[in-house]
């Protein structure tokens, strides 16, 4: 993007670069540039490194451990982290439940949960979707019945990302079955070690275990773990989803992917030519780059509006659609650039690597990244639903 950064912002960028140079383990950056997996331990190690520097939660208010950065600084930080090949921070605790606790939680909930999110002692998962309640989330059926100072929870969640690692789940439950759909829902924080919880893996098209089914059988949750008021959980749920969608847009991630695509396309082939010399392929890269630049401008405009006290609305939906479409377009072009070398998709290579087949070791990750990007237009609310939201919020008379 063509933006005039101030002298202070340029100094800030240098600070971030220096920090990443000194503290980002080369092994992590290499694994990421080669499209290999990182373990939970790798991710925790990196998040703790950021936390020690006070840089783990740029989106939080300073009083809770935020950085106090401007939106431009946050943008610069994201860009530099992705460009250096730093691991993405896991968002369920930091970017999803924390903003809800900060806005709607009690003082005790803030004191109990926020420090442990920062220290990475608690790993969170999101219990929204159910069989039959995905796009139509407000028809969820997981039931919580109050018994004295506890809720007793019964039901099932599905597609729960990283539930097999999670210490806690933030969860939508039905507390009033008589009320109109969205009114009878509450937002509960649930300790995953509570008796009665079963986590069962779902293996996705790319062969990965990332998502799960979670079953609740008479799970007792203290009333102290209710966020906001009983039956008002939909307000928390919506607040969280707009934040989730804005971050799924992933501008910095897409920029790093685009650079990888250009790098692969610029490599010299056996005949001495590069794919980037092909005007048709170059035009496809240019097209996706233009889309990305436009999305980046919109993203900065949204961040500026949030800074001035606004809440992202239809913009989150727009950014989610564009961001995920761009990611899918780039991963498709990477697969095309790598050509037949993308085909031997061997799971173990994502952990251990192999002799480079072509250009960089990245060729073996191309198919995985392509498949992985397909799901981005489904989670966080499918893109078709985002179009409905845009139609309602902007086009409805
Ligand atoms: C990889 C992955 C990770 C996920 N992680 C989590 C998680 O951690 N926690 C969690 O709670 N959920 C998670 N989800 C669930 C995700 O939010 C839902 O899959 C999503 O909301 C869609 O719901 P569904 O799968 O029930 O599809 P459905 O709602 O059945 O939709 C099926 C299709 O119909 C379309 N459709 C449905 N209704 C309409 C309509 N009114 N207008 C136009 N088109 C429509 C949809 O766009 C979609 O293409 C995850 C999903 C995936 C794929």
Labels describing this entry:
397 residues, alpha+beta, 4-stranded mixed beta sheet, 4-stranded antiparallel beta sheet, 13 helices, 48% helix, globular, binds flavin-adenine dinucleotide
What does this structure look like?
By secondary structure, the chain is an alpha+beta fold. The protein contains 13 helices and 8 strands. The strands form 2 sheets. The chain has a 4-stranded mixed β-sheet. The protein has a 4-stranded antiparallel β-sheet with strand order 2-3-7-6, with no helix packed on it. A hairpin with a 5-residue loop joins strand 6 (197-203) and strand 7 (209-222). The longest helix has 29 residues, at 279-307. It is globular, with a radius of gyration of 22 Å. Flavin-adenine dinucleotide binds next to strand 1 and helix 13.
Oligomer: single chain
E-strand count: 8
Strand content: 5-15%
- The H/E string reads HHHHHHEEEEEEEEHHHHHHH
Give the CA-CA distance, first to last residue: 34 Å
What would the average pLDDT be, to the nearest integer? 89
Helix content: 40-55%
Question: Which consecutive residue ranges, at least 5 long each, have pLDDT under 50?
Answer: none
The number of helical segments is 13
Question: Which molecules are bound in this entry?
Answer: flavin-adenine dinucleotide
> Main sheet, how many strands, which sense, barrel?
4 strands, mixed
Rg, rounded, reads: 22 Å
The computed structural class is alpha+beta
The geometry reads as globular
Which strand order does the major sheet show?
A: 1-4-5-8
């Amino acid at each position: 993007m063509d933006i005039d950064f101030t002298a202070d912002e340029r100094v800030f960028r240098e600070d971030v670069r220096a920090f990443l140079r000194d503290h980002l383990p080369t092994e992590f950056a290499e694994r990421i540039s080669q499209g290999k997996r990182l373990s939970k331990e790798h991710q925790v190690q990196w998040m703790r490194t950021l936390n020690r520097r006070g840089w783990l939660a740029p989106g939080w208010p300073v009083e809770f451990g935020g950085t106090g950065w401007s939106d431009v600084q946050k943008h610069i930080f994201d860009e530099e982290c992705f460009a250096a090949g730093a691991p993405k921070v896991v968002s369920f605790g930091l970017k999803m439940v924390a903003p809800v606790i900060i806005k709607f939680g009690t003082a005790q909930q803030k004191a109990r949960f926020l420090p442990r999110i920062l220290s990475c002692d608690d790993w969170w998962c999101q219990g929204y979707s159910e069989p039959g309640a995905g796009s139509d989330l407000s028809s969820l059926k997981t039931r919580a019945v109050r018994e004295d100072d506890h809720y007793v929870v019964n039901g099932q969640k599905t597609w729960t990302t990283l539930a097999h690692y999670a210490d806690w789940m933030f969860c939508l439950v039905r507390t009033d079955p008589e009320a109109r759909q969205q009114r009878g829902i509450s937002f509960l924080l649930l300790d995953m070690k509570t008796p009665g919880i079963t986590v069962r893996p779902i293996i996705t098209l790319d062969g990965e275990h990332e998502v799960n089914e979670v079953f609740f059988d008479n799970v007792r949750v203290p009333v102290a773990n209710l966020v906001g008021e009983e039956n008002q959980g939909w307000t928390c749920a919506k607040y969280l989803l707009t934040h989730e969608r804005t971050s799924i847009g992933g501008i910095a991630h897409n920029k790093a992917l685009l650079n990888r695509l250009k790098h692969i396309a610029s490599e010299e082939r056996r005949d001495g030519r590069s794919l980037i010399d092909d005007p048709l392929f170059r035009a496809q890269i240019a097209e996706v780059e233009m889309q990305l630049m436009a999305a980046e401008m919109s993203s900065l405009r949204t961040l500026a509006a949030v800074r001035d006290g606004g809440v992202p609305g239809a913009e989150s939906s727009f950014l989610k659609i564009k961001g995920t479409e761009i990611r899918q377009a780039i991963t498709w072009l990477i697969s095309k650039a790598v050509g037949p070398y993308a085909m031997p998709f061997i799971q173990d290579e994502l952990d251990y690597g192999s002799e480079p087949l072509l250009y960089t070791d990245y060729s073996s990750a191309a198919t995985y990244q392509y498949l992985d990007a397909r799901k981005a237009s489904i989670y966080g609310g499918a893109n078709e639903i985002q179009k409905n939201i845009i139609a309602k919020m902007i086009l409805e008379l």
